[in-house]
Amino acid sequence: MIKKPRAFFRGIRIAGHKSPTDRMPAERLSAIPEVIIPLAQSIGAPAKPVVEVGQAVRRGQCIAEAAGIVSANVHASIAGTVAAIGPRPDGRGGQTDCIVITPADVQEEAFLPSLSEPSAEEILARIAACGIVGMGGAGFPTHVKLAPPVPVDTLILNGSECEPYLTCDDVLMQARKNEVLRGAKYLAKALNASNILIAIEQNKPDDIAAFADSDIDVVPLKKQYPMGAEKQLIYCCTGRKVPLGKLPAHAGVIVQNVATAVAVCEAVEQGKPLIERIVTVTGGGIRQPKNLICPVGTPLSVLAEACGGEQDAVKLVEGGPMTGCALTGTEAVVTKTTGGFLFLTAQETNTDEATPCINCGRCADACPMKLMPMQTEFYTNAKEYENAEKYGGVLACIECGVCSYVCPARRPLAQAIKTAKAELRRKS
Amino acid sequence: MRILSSAPHIRTRRTTKNIMLDVLIALLPAVAASIVYFGWQAAVTILISLAAAVLTEFVWYLVEHKVWRNAKETVFAWAAQFDYTSLVTGLLLALCLPANVAGWYLPLLGSLFAVGIVKMLFGGTGKNIVNPAIAGRVFLFISFTVMANYATFYPAANFDPIGKTSLSELMTGATSLTSGLKDGAMLSNLDLFLGTGVAGCLGETCKVALLVGYLYLCVRGVIKWYLPLLYIGVTGLFAVALEGFDFSFFLPSILSGGLILGACFMATDYVTTPKSKLGNIIYFIVLGLLTAGLRKATGIEVVSFCILLMNFLVFLIDIAIRPRPFGYVRKKKEAKE
């Protein structure tokens, strides 16, 4: 059934740039020389390694265990030998602890037994054991999210994919509709939620039509950025507003990405941990844009090679162009949360110098949280962070990047808000 | 080496420069109308004003960036950062001056004051407290008596005032404002709308040209369509209310004087309007009330004075209005003990 959506306030329309890859089924990547699996792939504490250098591991074997409640297990994404455990460059200018595995000739699997007719507790335990985290980008451990402090009645599957360029969720929904649906059932059962909605932006009419036949409700969302942001999505699907400073659960809703639903389905039915995902490699700076199914830990250099190599790319981005992180080079690896890698040309990315603010108010008009980014930036530049919060609003920011996108003076507004947020958090 | 920066990595194509270019394009119909109505003197006035505005900014930049150290590079740097704002200021100033080549020093001094003192002295683009063109006009208005009586001497040259208005009747107002209001038969509303036979400044007489520019600005998303309408509407309605709810005053009061020019192009200047939507609505409503009230009280055209006055209040409006984020919950007042 198709439900009628709402539009949220403000927001912007951005050109999609999805056409190079949105009709391209995901290809499986083969022949990977080594995988470099970071221990910190989710929000919270990095996992603790439970294997030693030289040890043989099978595909799907747990190689690092969750440390603390908000943390997730990490599994071997290929069968092979642990070559090293230690810090590796993370492609963002820093270093992060990783487990390096070189592949064996025979790929043996070590999946968990499959569950039939699982109870809510069994599903939750399985999700935790399989190290599933939110695959939309933020990477919140799913088993923590599925244990909300207050009861919820609605599960929303987020298939909006409002970020330009990325098509990983789109091709996933095209190819694996049934897994998405079954995963949603398991998630809803774990949550004891009675309503299941799937939210898809109207720029993916095929997916909307496909899911309209199923027994869960489809919400065809208006093409508006940031539609996939949790609070905006909840408002558009249910009309509920998440109170400031509260969790979506306080509005009675849990949002999960469609890719997470597929991972949950695989974890329950096949016992397969979260060890691979679809990654979109695209942008004007890559010769053959593709959607690739790759094991977690695949270096970007391998992906770039599989896509014909780069061409005039001046900027590398992990994730979408609006919220992604710029990379220093191709040493970055695929993690559980990587939706895509972008190779942007000078023409696509904008490197203009900032000019003075002309107070046009476009940032405030576009802000989906109704903040005043120009005020925040003004006070942040003066290092008056309390005033930035008072007159501009800082802590409510969802960091969608809309303000910087629309600024005709090219001012780094989103960056200023992030700075102010970090300073305010540090002080409190 | 890769380019590293914080997200987002893509930007809109809109820049300050092309917004200003849009404003200039939107003013072209008014420029054309002024040349048709007032003849070659209008063109000369506009050119003097534009040249003076750009030259002032140019010289200021050269001195500020110590041109004597590296002349060539400084000039190129100026060209690279030039964002057309001084052209907009120069053009707007010219459009609220009379067509009079004998007073050639008026646009020159006005632009010098507007760009040099009002804009550059306060830090350049985006830093001025009041609208430079408005401040330039007010500066000329209070410095040169000829400005006060320009309507007397410079009616639209190519059209005879309809109804053979005598000079003494026109003397009563800075523009056709009061004379039009006094005797409805002298100028019809259509005359006011088209600007035929109406005395006034270069740009303000032909309302059709201004409205074409207004529509262009709205279509291009430069200004919000409702703000000028709010200003014009409130002015008209309050004027009607002040005349004892005589609705025959509505059209003359919105069509006469510089109201439409001021509402569409000057009051909407980004730098000197509040930042928030609510702030803008308050600003334009108060502006409308002030304009109608002061017009009634003084009997002269006060649009530029009202905008100047309100510009000073923008900061207060901005700090009074706090953002209410999406999902904001009003804090419950603590129970009184």
Q: What's the number of helices of chain B?
A: 18
Strand percentage of chain A = 15-25%
Strand content of chain B: under 5%
CATH homologous superfamily of the domain at 120-270 in chain A - what is it? NADH-ubiquinone oxidoreductase 51kDa subunit
Cα shape of chain A: globular
Fraction of helical residues of chain A = 25-40%
What shape does the CA trace of chain B take? globular
Average pLDDT rating of chain B: 82
**Element order of chain B: H for helix, E for strand:** HHHHHHHHHHHHHHHHHH
The biggest sheet of chain B amounts to: none
- The H-and-E topology of chain A, N to C, reads as EEEEEEEEHHEHHEHEHEHEEHEEEHHHHH
Total beta strands of chain B:
0
Could you give the distance between the termini of chain A? 47 Å
Q: Tell me the radius of gyration of chain B.
A: 22 Å
Biggest interface reads: A-B, 69 and 41 residues
How far apart the termini of chain B lie comes to 65 Å
How big is the Rg of chain A?
21 Å
**What is the count of DSSP helices of chain A, taking H or I runs of 4+ residues?**
13
Low-confidence stretches of chain A: none
Describe the secondary-structure layout.
The complex is a heterodimer of chains A (428) and B (337).
Chain A: E1 27-28, E2 35-38, E3 48-49, E4 56-57, E5 62-65, E6 74-75, E7 80-89, E8 95-103, H1 120-129, H2 142-145, E9 154-159, H3 168-175, H4 177-191, E10 195-201, H5 205-212, E11 217-221, H6 230-238, E12 253-257, H7 258-270, E13 276-282, E14 290-295, H8 300-306, E15 313-318, E16 325-327, E17 340-345, H9 362-366, H10 373-381, H11 385-392, H12 402-406, H13 413-427
Parallel strand pairs in A: 1-14, 9-10, 9-12, 10-11, 13-17
Antiparallel strand pairs in A: 2-8, 3-5, 4-7, 5-6, 7-8, 13-14, 15-16, 15-17
Chain B: H1 16-38, H2 40-64, H3 71-81, H4 85-95, H5 105-119, H6 132-143, H7 145-148, H8 150-153, H9 167-171, H10 176-182, H11 189-194, H12 207-219, H13 226-242, H14 250-255, H15 259-266, H16 277-298, H17 303-311, H18 314-320
